[in-house]
Amino acid sequence: MTSPQDIQQLSSNFNAVGLSTSPGVVSASPNDSYLSQVRQRSFSTAKHAKPLKPFSTGDIKILLLENVNETAREIFAEQGYQVEFHKSSLPEDELIEKIKDVHAIGIRSKTKLTEKVLKHAKNLIIIGCFCIGTNQVDLEYAAKSGVAVFNSPFSNSRSVAELVIAEIITLARQLGDRSLEMHTGTWNKVSNKCWEIRGKTLGIVGYGHIGSQLSVLAEAFGMNVIYYDVLMIMALGSAKQVRTLNDLLAQADFVTLHVPENPDTKNLISSPQLAAMKDGAYLINASRGTVVDIPALVEAMKLGKLAGAALDVYPQEPGKNGPNFTNELNSWATELTSLRNIILTPHIGGSTEEAQSAIGIEVGTALTKYINEGTSTGAVNFPEVALRALDLDQENSVRVLYIHQNVPGVLKTVNNILGNHNIEKQFSDSRGEIAYLMADISDVDASDIKSLYEQLEHTPYKIVTRLLY
Ligand SMILES: NC(=O)c1ccc[n+]([C@@H]2O[C@H](COP(=O)([O-])OP(=O)(O)OC[C@H]3O[C@@H](n4cnc5c(N)ncnc54)[C@H](O)[C@@H]3O)[C@@H](O)[C@H]2O)c1
After folding, report:
1. Residue 233 pLDDT more than 60?
2. So what CATH class is 157-344?
3. Which of 210, 375, 394, 451 has its CA 20 to 30 A from that of 354?
């Protein structure tokens, strides 16, 4: 066991990350101003908090793969963590070697953290997925091993909403076709069936993070917005919720889909729904590929029922860039690509520099808060537990972080161990077979810390013990 490390100085640097901008200074780009706002929000709560040092962990080592955004690397550097950074993912044998002694790993979608890989990770406490999806990680095995997993599901909502606005105008003005024609030397100046979007009705299916952003943007363009959601959701601006999907389909000039992928949304838009749409309406799907029955869409386009469509997502998507969008992948690919006024994009709805930066900050901050304070809010595989920070003057206080199997009697055992001290606050939650207890205890001498740690380590249902002091 390594001795406790003094990271007081490093922890106080934590507060310095919220780079404040002077009043009156105009930032160089919207990105800069947005990012500094996010940083200030992320770190402002740490102002009067006691910086905590880990007992028994040694220096925190982080392995970052797949070119994780520099916003995250800046956050870890400020913390003084030891960061090993790689631009790409690693072959499995190299990954197994590298993961052995790190406390945290940051990945995107290509690195597969399977049980085979994770069982070599003896010191790992946290995995950061710097992306939306988490199916590249064996979440259950990670939880059973006491490893929390975080991701960033909503950092790219605005990027998707902006893409959809662009597609609405592009479809209404047939810009895709005109541009293709010009690229092949054809001048085709037409106004027939080209429209302004002002005064048209946008029907949003799924009024969550993306759908509601889009609602605000569309109204600014003078569109009437209606939406359908399985939940009753408060409208933004003058938008109106409709009762059924068919009500929406009957009224909307543009239908745009922003629902999750699940059994209920599979082929949510198929032949009957396409038939229920207005003649000459447009369909946009930037949600998930399974939500639209694409052969039915091809049919509706061929019959002239729809005037256009935009697809960003597909049931099967190529694993890498290149000439891979073929009939072998999806049997209807050639038919789809030969249609007029149909915009096809390679799942780029959330792919912007701003989204990548925001993901770096969100996941980087979540990892730091879990390592430094034990806060697991937002974890995807783990009980979500948080306690307010210890104050600067609580010198002899210790934060106990205890991950254990969710069985009766554990809390009694733990509270017996903590019982000689004053338990100032305590919170425990469980998720499936895993439970997580966080407690702040006071009146702890430096000499008590080792004994507390060892007693907790020897309890029968313990998975991971960490003490911060
Ligand atoms: N194209 C891209 O690059 C990209 C990027 C980010 C997200 N997405 C996808 O966009 C979709 C929406 O993302 P979000 O962040 O807005 O999700 P969200 O969870 O914030 O919102 C989804 C909304 O859909 C509603 N809903 C669920 N089932 C429904 C149904 N059967 N009918 C109507 N409404 C239903 C929910 O109540 C919720 O309000 C997701 O599928 C997500 O994976 C795509």
Report:
1. yes
2. alpha beta
3. 375
Distance 353 CA to ligand 1 centre (A): 21
The CATH label, of 3.40.630.30, 3.40.50.720, 2.40.37.10, 3.30.70.260, for the domain at 61-154+355-368 is 3.40.50.720
Q: Which atom number of ligand 1 is nearest to the Cα of residue 212?
A: 16
Q: What are the φ and ψ backbone dihedral angles of 269, each rounded to 5 degrees?
A: -110, 105
Q: Is 461 left (phi over 0), alpha (psi -120 to 50) or beta?
A: alpha
pLDDT band at 37 (very low <50, low <70, confident <90, very high): very low
Q: 15 with 43: CB under 8 angstroms? A: yes
Per-domain boundaries in the chain: 4-45, 61-154+355-368, 157-344, 385-468
Q: Judge if the beta carbon of residue 181 lies within 6 A of ligand 1.
A: no
CATH 3.30.70.260 fits 385-468, yes or no: yes
The closest residue, in CA terms, to atom 6 on ligand 1 is: 350
Q: Ligand 1 test: best mutation among 155, 160, 291, 348, most atoms within 8 Å of CB?
A: 160
Find the largest Cα–Cα distance for the chain: 85
Helix (H) or strand (E) holding 276: helix 271-276
Fold match between domain 61-154+355-368 and domain 157-344: yes
Q: Is 364 in the pocket of ligand 1 (CB under 6 A)?
A: no
Q: Which helix (H) or strand (E) holds 182?
A: helix 175-183
Is the distance from CB of 364 to CB of 75 less than 8 angstroms?
A: yes
Pocket test for ligand 1, best of 109, 154, 258 (most atoms within 8 A of CB): 258
Residue 16's pLDDT is 30
Among residues 319, 304, 211, which one has the least CA distance to residue 255? 211
What's the whole-number mean pLDDT along residues 175-198? 98
